[in-house]
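Note to self: the last two entries modelled the partners one at a time, which told us nothing about the interface. This time every component goes in together.
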Amino acid sequence: MKYPAVTNFIQGRFTGNSGREMLDVISPLDGSLLSTVPLSKSIDLDTAVSSATTAFKTWGKMPIKERVQVFFRFKSLLEKYKKELANLVSEENGKTPDEGLAEIEKSIELTEFACSLPQLVTGELLEVSRGIECRTERVPLGVVASIVPFNFPSMVPCWTIPNAIALGNCMIIKPSEKVPLSIGRIAELLKEAGLPDGVLNVVHGNSEIVDSICDHPNIEAVSFVGSTKVAKIVYRRATQNLKRCLALGGAKNHLLVLPDAIPDMTAQNITASMSGCAGQRCMAASAMIAVGEVDHIIERLCAEARKMVPGENLGAVINKESKARIENYISQAEKMGARVLVDGRNKVVAGKENGTYIGATIIDYVTPDMSVAKEEIFGPVISIMRTKTLEEALIIENNNPYGNAASVFTQNGAAARYVIEHASAGMVGVNVGVPVPREPFSFGGWNESRFGVGDITGKSSIEFWTKLKKSTTKWNPQAGVNWMS
Ligand code: NAD
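The predicted structure of the combined assembly is written out below.
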């Protein structure tokens, strides 16, 4: 085992695992045993919540300009340890070291945004009547929770930790049991940056801890990022318990390719979108709609996809089950009459025979009723459907239940504008394969990709992580003047 057993991080220190059941943490890169992770019990969550509740008494009252100083220092530490963190992300998640580096760079950008929060959360004040003022201010909620998935062990925690904590909350984070290592380094670095004990607590585990978070009477708000199936469970359970909840789910992102798209740029962008992070991104291109005659672009797309070499510039998928599930999708589509133009099945990387690799896969002549057209595959696979018109393409896009991203590749401004207007997705790209809005713009999908109100990052997150206090004050002595006079 390469690393010591993972433990919870409560009240500023790593705890023991006191007889908890442990799961193996396996590296998708080569199948080696990295560590073990505890399946915590609700009593562990109780300890974390009481630590956070105590910490909130001081942290919640500290001026935000002081609180963000921790994140200025945290940002410098992320920069200092960028390479080490990137390698850890790569080892536990399976993405390439370069993709790990990009993830840490994004974590840094998210932290920078949190450092700017004092400029964004100023309240309002107006003299509403002579000598009488109404004022608003944003105040933290208290103890909040963040439940995160396996595909971004550092970036997704950095969607919530910096903003929620800079805004004055204390947090319990529940990492994915598949990738529990990076969060330990994040907690350590935040402590080194000066975060007081108890402000961030890490509780590892599975659905039992998630259920306990949704039920805990002293947790005010729950953010969730993961599959739609679990997003629905968490959203229902947390709101049933009268908590504020924002739950981001899965995706099926469509790229519409028009005949006037620039072939090389389009082919490279689509390949990067469908195969980056081995297709395990909620913003990955999963379906391509070829509108009219675009065979010349599909040809270049196949050439680009063949340049993706598992174990070199293409990482591994998370585990054996995932690899089998993805390969099964490809085989099913083939059986139903689709044509596999580039086949990533049965890839083995020499020297890493136990790694879980799949090559970039392009499936053509997919019809909208096939499961590869409808379901989230979460692997380096793109399904091509063909339509004669843009309207038909948009009907297919609109009929999919998700709504994270959609993109169009064209040189026609009017067509691009039409897609922006008519795509049923929260994030739309024009000639951009992964239309993730960069800070300060916020991240969030529509439909079954997001339950709750608002986005998880950017200015939108301020509303989620705070509540608004309204005060009306009168300090003039006249008896005849009141708030409505
Ligand atoms: P997942 O839903 O399986 O797990 C997410 C979290 O929920 C984990 O911490 C896990 O321990 C917990 N969990 C799993 N099953 C549970 C259950 N039955 N009850 C309660 N909790 C449970 O997701 P994953 O496989 O880790 O991540 C991949 C998914 O996340 C994909 O669907 C992807 O699209 C989605 N995702 C979405 C976004 C977004 O912004 N919309 C971002 C990243 C990932």
